[in-house]
């Protein structure tokens, strides 16, 4: 995989859109990514990594933090990468999730993370995670493997070089991702602790079960139980003691069950006799109560029968009431007719009264309308000349409106004239200032030119010798030599001064032209105002013109208001004349209509009086036939008679029901009394007091027997449960102890805790295997860079088997045959060693993945510690060796010497306000 083109937008320190044409760097060799610290050199690799895998290279660089703080709100955060892989081109567009400015309205909205991958044939893969998966499948490496192969962070490997086993252990965990082995170690350690605790808990449970064994206080086995509780017996012996206790309690339980059966039989017989005796007593009590109730009911029965006889006699009165009701009901239609006539009379009389009042009202209204009509006719005579002055007043209003508009226009022009005069005065003042500046700089320029000429003469005089000809005049005698001044302006200074004078002259001309143009504008405006003033009959000097205009404007507005007011009054008179002219005929018609309605009402009154008289005669005839004064009184009498008839019927029914109920009670009580007498006649005789005493005694015996068997059963349950729990837990303890033995050994082995053995943890062992292979590959580079002097050696064992080891690193010096700590190397030697480790890791990961083609590599920093005479060239040669074939290596560094050695460069420049930007040098 080789990047061809990278485009970064609002990404990291890059505020704008940066385009890096990486294909111009060539297909192999070295190129330099340079710039000051924090400019964004490593961000270029971050952008490539983000485009491919959706996250930056560093673990502390979250994709949500990639948006540039320098970028404008409308600049999108995204990366575009075009790369070549196995002869085919691919293009990736990817953006992180970030807050962007809304396209419509104010505020911000969340832009979702998205990506797409375009193949050479034009097909696409879309989706953030889908593109990442496609890249992993295409390149054959994960992000972590890509970083290990393509990014040699020399600073990290310097830490690795100088770290002890503990520190190197942490570094390797991040490099080789051996966390799973550490988790396995912790899980085994936790499992060991769990097994150990389980054994202790099981032993504790057995003790609790033993303490739960129950035994009678006087039992000889109590001594053995105490020994078991104190831990003096083996588990097998404890189980045997419990079995003996169970055997004894089972025998005692069988014995008690037989005794309880006999007691229950005796108890049931006594209970049965006692129940029969109590039933006889209840029967005797019931017989006594029944006789007493019968004695009380016989007098009541007599009273109820007498009341029934009286109610039967009252039934005759009920028949009389019904006859009266029928008689009154035959007269009810006459009552209705009488009341209907009464209602009609009431309505007719009210109508008659209303008609009389209407006649009075209509006569009054007719008289009022006649007077109003006369008044309107008088007013109409006075308004006959309305509207004669309307046209004249309207013409006056038009004249005033035109005059006011002209006067206000003149006033606006006077205001504009004042403003333009101020502009003219400002232009004059500007011209005066520039003119003075020009005069001053011109004089300064003349003085400088004179000084320059004098200086040139002085310089020439200084070179003249008596007898030698002057190059200007040819004289060989020089009696009066020009003196060289201390300060002689240069020709360049003179040119600058003349240029400044010329610039100032042009500026003076411009300001003069502007002032002249403004003067002409003011004069033109004055002429326009004079012409406009003549149109409105104003001919005054300019200084008084505005006052005259204001006075005339006020006068015309007053005249206009007066004309408007008079015109409005004239319109009101016209409207009033038209209104009255329309009202008079209407009033005359209404007056005549009222007279006609009065005549009609008088006819109606005569007819109504005749109708009322006829109805009153008919009402008097009906009243003579009726018993009551009205229908309501007749209806009330009917209701009264009906109530009396219903009451008589109800009293009869209640009396009859009462006699029937008491007869039934006497019948039932008599039957109950006979039954009780028959039962007592054939009943067995019992001594109830002796039975109750015997019942209490046997009940106490039964209670004591039950308590005893309950205690026995409780001991049986507890001991059976204890026997079962002890037996099961003992088996569990054996299994737990067996498991703890092998888990403990496995945990101690994995965690490097075996006594008298090397303290190497499983994770450290795995890391050591990786480390060994990396060191072998690193030494191929280191021996070449150091001319065969140094070789890295891994210390595999600790001297005392007490501390953790397995990742210690030393260096063998073939020049003096010694082996010492890598910390003793010089700065340049340490750089070469750490670079060798970085390259060794890259080689190892590449070999382990297999079949991948990554034609690009980055080396990040660390070159500043190398001396330029010896170690830097060797490191440079080693890096050049990486470019064999078609590999392109980018060195991220700000070392100046590398700029002269490496032609192809990506220069990153940092702008503290506008963000960083990139320049490509090829």
Automatic annotation (TrEMBL):
The UniProt entry's coiled-coil ranges are: 239-451, 577-739
Q: Which UniProt keywords apply?
A: Coiled coil, Exonuclease, Hydrolase, Nuclease
The record places domain Rad50/SbcC-type AAA at 6-272
Q: Name one Pfam family in it.
A: AAA_23
The signal peptide, as residue positions, is: none
Q: Which GO terms describe its molecular function?
A: ATP hydrolysis activity; exonuclease activity
Q: Which InterPro entries match?
A: P-loop_NTPase, Rad50/SbcC_AAA
Q: What is one Gene Ontology biological process annotated in the Swiss-Prot or TrEMBL record?
A: double-strand break repair
What subunit structure does UniProt give? Heterodimer of SbcC and SbcD.
Could you say which protein family the record assigns here? Belongs to the SMC family. SbcC subfamily.
Name the chain's protein. Answer: Nuclease SbcCD subunit C
Which organism is this protein's natural source? Eubacterium oxidoreducens
């Amino acid at each position: 995989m080789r990047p061809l083109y990278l485009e970064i937008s609002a990404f990291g320190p890059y505020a704008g859109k940066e385009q890096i044409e990486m294909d111009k760097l060539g297909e192999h060799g070295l190129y330099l990514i340079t710039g000051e610290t924090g400019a964004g050199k490593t961000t270029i690799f971050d952008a490539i990594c983000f485009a491919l895998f959706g996250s930056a290279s560093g673990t502390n660089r979250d994709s949500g933090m990639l948006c540039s703080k320098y970028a404008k709100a409308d600049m999108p955060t995204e990366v575009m990468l075009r790369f070549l892989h196995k002869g085919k081109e691919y293009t990736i567009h990817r953006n992180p999730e970030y807050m962007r400015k809304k396209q419509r309205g104010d505020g911000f909205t969340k832009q979702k993370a998205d990506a797409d991958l375009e193949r050479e044939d034009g097909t696409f893969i879309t989706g953030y995670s889908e593109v990442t998966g496609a890249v992993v499948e295409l390149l054959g490496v994960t992000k972590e493997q890509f970083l290990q192969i393509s990014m040699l962070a020399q600073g990290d490997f310097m830490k690795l070089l100088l770290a002890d086993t503990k520190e190197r252990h942490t570094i390797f965990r991040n490099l080789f991702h051996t966390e799973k082995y550490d988790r396995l170690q912790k899980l085994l350690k936790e499992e060991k602790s769990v097994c150990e605790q389980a054994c202790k808990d099981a032993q504790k449970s057995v003790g609790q079960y033993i303490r739960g064994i129950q035994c009678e206080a006087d039992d000889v086995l109590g001594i053995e139980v105490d020994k078991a509780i104190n831990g003096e017996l083996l588990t097998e012996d404890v189980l045997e003691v419990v079995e003996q206790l169970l055997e004894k309690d089972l025998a005692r339980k069988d014995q008690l069950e037989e005794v309880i059966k006999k007691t229950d039989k005796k108890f049931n017989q006594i209970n049965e006799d006692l129940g029969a005796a109590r039933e006889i007593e209840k029967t005797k009590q019931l017989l006594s109560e029944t006789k007493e109730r019968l004695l009380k009911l016989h007098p009541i029965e007599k009273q109820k029968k007498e009341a029934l006889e009286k109610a039967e006699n009252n039934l005759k009165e009920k028949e009389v009431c019904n006859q009266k009701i029928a008689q009154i009901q035959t007269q009810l239609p006459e009552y209705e007719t009488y009341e209907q006539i009464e209602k009609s009379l009431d309505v007719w009389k009210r109508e008659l009264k209303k008609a009389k009042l209407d006649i009075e009202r209509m006569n009054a209204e007719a008289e009022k309308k006649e007077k109003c009509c006369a008044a309107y006719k008088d007013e109409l005579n006075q308004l006959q000349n309305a509207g004669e002055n309307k046209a004249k007043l309207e013409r006056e209003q038009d004249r005033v409106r035109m005059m006011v508009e002209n006067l206000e226009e003149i006033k606006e022009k006077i205001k504009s004239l004042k403003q333009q005069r101020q502009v003219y005065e400002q232009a004059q003042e500007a011209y005066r200032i520039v003119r003075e500046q020009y005069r001053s700089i011109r004089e300064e320029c003349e003085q400088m030119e004179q000084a320059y000429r004098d200086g040139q003469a002085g310089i020439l005089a200084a070179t003249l010798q008596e007898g030698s000809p002057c190059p200007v005049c040819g004289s060989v005698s020089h009696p009066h030599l020009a003196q060289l001044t201390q300060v002689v302006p240069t020709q360049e200074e003179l040119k600058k001064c003349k240029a400044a004078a010329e610039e100032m002259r042009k500026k003076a001309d411009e300001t003069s032209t502007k002032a002249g143009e403004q003067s002409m504008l003011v004069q033109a405006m004055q002429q326009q105002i004079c012409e406009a003033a003549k149109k409105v009959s104003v001919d005054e000097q300019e200084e008084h013109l505005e006052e005259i205009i204001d006075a005339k404007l006020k006068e015309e507005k007053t005249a206009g208001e007066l004309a408007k007011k008079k015109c409005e009054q004239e319109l009101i008179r016209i409207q009033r004349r038209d209104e009255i002219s329309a009202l008079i005929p209407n009033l005359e018609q209404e007056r005549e209509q009222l007279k006609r309605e009065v005549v009609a009402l008088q006819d109606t009154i005569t007819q109504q009086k005749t109708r009322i008289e006829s109805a009153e005669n008919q009402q008097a005839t009906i009243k003579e036939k009726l018993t009551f004064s009205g229908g309501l009184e007749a209806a009330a009498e009917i209701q009264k008679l009906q109530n009396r008839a219903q009451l008589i019927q109800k009293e009869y029914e209640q009396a009859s029901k009462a006699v029937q109920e008491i007869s039934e009670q006497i019948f039932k009580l008599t039957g109950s009394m006979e039954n009780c007498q028959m039962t007592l006649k054939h009943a067995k005789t019992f001594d109830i007091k002796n039975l109750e005493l015997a019942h209490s005694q046997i009940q106490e015996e039964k209670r004591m027997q039950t308590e005893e068997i309950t205690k026995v059963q409780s001991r049986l349950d507890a001991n059976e449960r204890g026997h079962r729990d002890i037996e099961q837990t003992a088996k569990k303890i054996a299994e737990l102890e067996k498991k703890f033995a092998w888990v403990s050994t496995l945990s101690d082995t994995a965690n490097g805790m075996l006594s008298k053995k090397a303290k190497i943890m499983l994770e450290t062992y795995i890391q050591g295997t990786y480390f060994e292979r990396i060191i072998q590959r690193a030494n191929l580079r280191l021996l070449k860079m150091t001319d065969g002097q140094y070789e890295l050696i891994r210390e595999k064992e600790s001297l005392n088997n007490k501390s953790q080891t397995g990742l210690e690193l030393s260096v063998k010096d073939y020049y003096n045959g010694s082996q010492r700590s890598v910390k003793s190397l010089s700065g340049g030697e340490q750089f070469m060693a750490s670079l060798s480790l970085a390259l060794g890791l890259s080689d190892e990961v590449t070999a382990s993945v297999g079949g991948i083609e990554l034609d690009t590599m980055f080396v990040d920093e660390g070159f500043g510690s190398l001396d330029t005479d010896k170690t830097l060239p060797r490191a440079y040669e080693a890096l050049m060796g990486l470019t064999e074939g078609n590999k392109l290596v980018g060195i991220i560094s700000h070392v100046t010497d590398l700029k002269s050695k490496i032609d192809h460069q990506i220069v990153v420049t940092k702008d503290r306000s506008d963000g960083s930007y990139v320049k490509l040098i090829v």
